[in-house]
Structure formats: structure tokens, C-alpha cells
Specification:
alpha/beta, eight-stranded mixed sheet, 12 helices, globular, signal-anchor
Amino acid sequence: MALCLWLIVVAPVCCWGQGPVDTGDSGVFQPQSALTDMEFASVSTYRGPGNPDPRPNNKLPILLWWSSNLFPHFPGDTERVDCAHSSCLVTSNRKVQLYRRTASIIFYGTDFRAYEAPLPRLAHQTWALFHEESPMNNYLLSHSVGIRLFNYTATFRRESDYPLTLQWLPSLDYLLKAPAVPLQEKNRWRRAGLAPVLYMQSHCDVPSDRDRYVQELITFIEIDSYGKCLNNKPLPDYLEDTSTATGEDRRFMSFVGRYKFHLALENGLCPDYMTEKLWRPMHQGCVPIYRGSSSVADWLPNNHSAILIDDFPSPRDLAEFIKTLDQDDAEYSHYLEYKTPSKITNLRLLEGLESREWGVNDMSKPNYLNGFECFVCDRENERLAAVKAHRKNPQQNLLPQPKMANSSHMGCPLPSPGYGPVESIDPNDGWLQMWPQDYWQSLDQAEGLESLVRHNVSDPSLLWQHIQSIAVRRARGR
Ligand SMILES: *[C@@H]1O[C@H](CO)[C@@H](O)[C@H](O)[C@H]1NC(C)=O
Ligand SMILES: *[C@@H]1O[C@H](CO)[C@@H](O)[C@H](O)[C@H]1NC(C)=O
Ligand SMILES: *[C@@H]1O[C@H](CO)[C@@H](O)[C@H](O)[C@H]1NC(C)=O
Ligand SMILES: *[C@@H]1O[C@H](CO)[C@@H](O)[C@H](O)[C@H]1NC(C)=O
């Protein structure tokens, strides 16, 4: 991601923190002087000027990026962002954590650790979660008690506040691209001995346990497997260089494009979690054999553009189906019909691409980090204005309703075996020892953190004690 592209740095704007901005800061709030040595630059808005926010920097709410390595500005800066409706200061400087003007703390889900959470959690501050990566990166967020700690979310789920569901689909044109290898040529390769199905995976031992499924499938149908997982074929030398073996490289595309079918199994299973595993074969003109999001059909171009593993009762049935398609050019071509624009009939997909404000590799649109930052900024300014109006005139203006996330914003299920019942798995199996445990330990951490927050604890390292006492209480049946 080219995060810095959105920055146009303007001359530093002067100092805020002069004079008493807030009264009533006490106790836990740090004095303003802690901030006076910070320098502020100003960024112009990617939406162009025009928001009506007249306030100088020293009156703006602050958004703190807790995970500084995702901070979508120059590292270490504090900057003014001018969003659609209002402006904020954004920083990754943790000195502002307990400051009254700090309205929201933004977290990157993959880096979020309960034992490093910003505590005590202040009542006037919201927490915002950005998590576009795999559910496997942090199962804490999949538990209801964990996700409810956040007020705003940007996740792959359509239910999140700022959904990133189609983040791996750059555009409609990406789908419409003509197949890298035409069907006649794919058939020639078949006759020359190429398998119908490609598997190329080097990240083994993942929560979706995909290799266990593929291992079973491979006993019923020929699969060429080039990655580290279940490898049965060497890559051609010219593709060994991994820098070309992943992206849009033409030689890579024409190599993988020879295959009629690509096994496309996500590393973690969750509704609406779809990655390049799904969209890239479609771009290349190959039919994905997909498992990942259970609701993937909601987003596909039409009802015959991918083969969904979960539609088949067994790997044997799936293999039979693939074999029939392999023998039937007309039926196979049916699966690539969406390459003709009029055959893309899924309005949800079309509208999703049309209505998202962020772009993928599109310089004319904001990236979704800056987009979410502005989403939070505008929401926080609305909330602050509503709180202020309420204080002025409580009879006329109600306090804004609390806003918090729930498990529909993430909510990924307990990892289950890729094939067969969990009881049939060897207790020493690596997957079994890793992922179900990780999922339940993440629940402990979520509960521990919720307890720290509820008890207004300042030291996040007390997490382990809280987890312990929750376990003890539970064992006593309370
Ligand atoms: C939470 O703890 C801080 C000190 O760490 C204290 O200043 C603050 O008043 C406490 N808040 C509540 C609601 O008890
Ligand atoms: C797809 O939808 C069409 C028309 O709605 C229907 O006739 C057809 O049976 C469907 N195909 C599949 C594979 O579900
Ligand atoms: C933010 O979420 C927390 C915890 O879930 C909740 O207690 C608080 O009221 C929410 N804040 C706002 C402003 O909605
Ligand atoms: C969960 O959040 C979604 C979207 O923010 C909301 O529509 C839904 O009503 C919430 N569900 C519950 C059970 O609160």
C-alpha cells in the first residue's frame, strides 16, 4: 500500500496547546505541557478543501493511532486532516493517550494485544478498530466480548461501520479481463498431461486447515501442487523467483492460466473474508474451487462463476463434478461468462464496487486507512457537537446514544478441521494443538481485557491476574 501518496505536506502550522483548552482535566489526564514540544504539520485533505470546519488546530479533537506502523502519514508526525465534514489532528504519539482532547484511539487489529491496551480506558474516548487481514491474525476480535470493546470498526464484514469487503477486488475491469490462456489452449495442455486443477500454497498449518481437505481431494482427482504445502511438482526455473511468482507477472499468469481450475482456500474461515485467492483466478480466467467466506455467493458476479467446496457433500463428489466440467467445454465456458459485462448480474457486487469511496491502486481515491481515519474524525466531531449541545440545553438535546461494535463486525467461528470430524484427528496433530487453542486463549484475553477496563485498571500487565481470577470464578461455578 502506498500510504504516503496521500500526503501533501504544507508548512507547519503553529503550536497548539497554548492556553487552557479544557478545564476540569484532573487526575489521570496529563498536563498539556507534555505536548508543547510536539510539532504539527498540516496536510491538505485528499477530498480537496471545502469542509466548513473553521477551528484552528488547537481546538480540534485528536485521533491517536495506537499501532504506529500503520499510521497513514509520515512516521512520527502529528497532522491536521481535513475530512468531508470536519477536521481532526492525527498522531501516533502515545503521549496524548490520556489527554482530554484525544477523542478516539485507532487500533490495527493484527497488532492489537490485550496486555498492551491503552489503560485506563477513559469514558470520553472511543476505540476504533481497523482490521482488514485474516481472522487468524487475531482471534480476540472474533469473540463478542472482544469486539464490543470497540466503538467503530473497519473490517472485511459488510456489517462493519466502514466495510472493506471487496478490498481484494480492484475494479470490475479486473474481473472482465480476458482469460490469460484460452480454453482451446488449456485443453491442449490437458492432453499434454497437465492436471485439471492447480494448487499453489506455501502457507501451511493455517486455521482453515485447507491442506487436510486438499489431501483428500487429491485421491480422487489429479492436482498439480507447486507450493510448499503438499508439493508434488517443481515450479519451472523461471518462476522460482518468488518476486514474480505472486502478482500480475505475465509469465506467471500465463503459467497458472493453463489450468482450468484453481484451488482457492482462504487461510481462515469467516463470513465476507475473501481475498485474492478468490478474485485472482477469476481475473486470470480460471475457475476457483473456493472455500473461505460462507457467504461468498452474495458477492460473486453470477451464480456460476466459482465452484464452492461447501456445496459438495464430500471431496469425492467435488472431484466428480470437476471431472464432468473438465470434459464439457460448453459447461466450463459457462463458468467464465461473467467476462461479458451483461452477464454480471449481481447487483450487490456492482453496487459495492460503485459505492465504496476508497480505491485499490487508484490514486484518484483515498486509501482505506485514510478513509477510515476520516470516518472516525467525522463521527467523533458529530458526537462531540451533540454532547456539547446537550450540556447547553439538556431539555432540547438528548445525549447521543452509545455506539459499539458487536460480533457481526468480525465474529469468525472456531477453527474446524478442513476435512472430517475433529474427533477423528490425532491428538498430536499440529493443527489441533495450535488453532482451536489459540481461539479459546483469545477468548480468555478478551475477557481479561474487558475486566481490566471495567475495573478501571491502569496497568495492562495485570491482564494475567484478571484472566486467572476469571478462570477461578468459573471453576467455582460463579
Ligand atoms: C480511573 O482511574 C484513574 C486513575 O488511574 C482515576 O483518575 C479515575 O478517576 C478513575 N475513573 C473512574 C471512573 O473511577
Ligand atoms: C442460476 O440462476 C438461473 C436463473 O436464475 C437458474 O436458472 C440456474 O439454475 C441457476 N444455476 C445455478 C447453478 O444455481
Ligand atoms: C464505546 O464503547 C464502550 C465499550 O463498549 C462503551 O462503554 C461506550 O459507551 C462507547 N462510547 C460511545 C461514545 O459510544
Ligand atoms: C450489531 O451491529 C449491527 C451493525 O452495526 C447492527 O445493525 C445490529 O443491530 C447489532 N446487533 C446487535 C445484536 O446489537
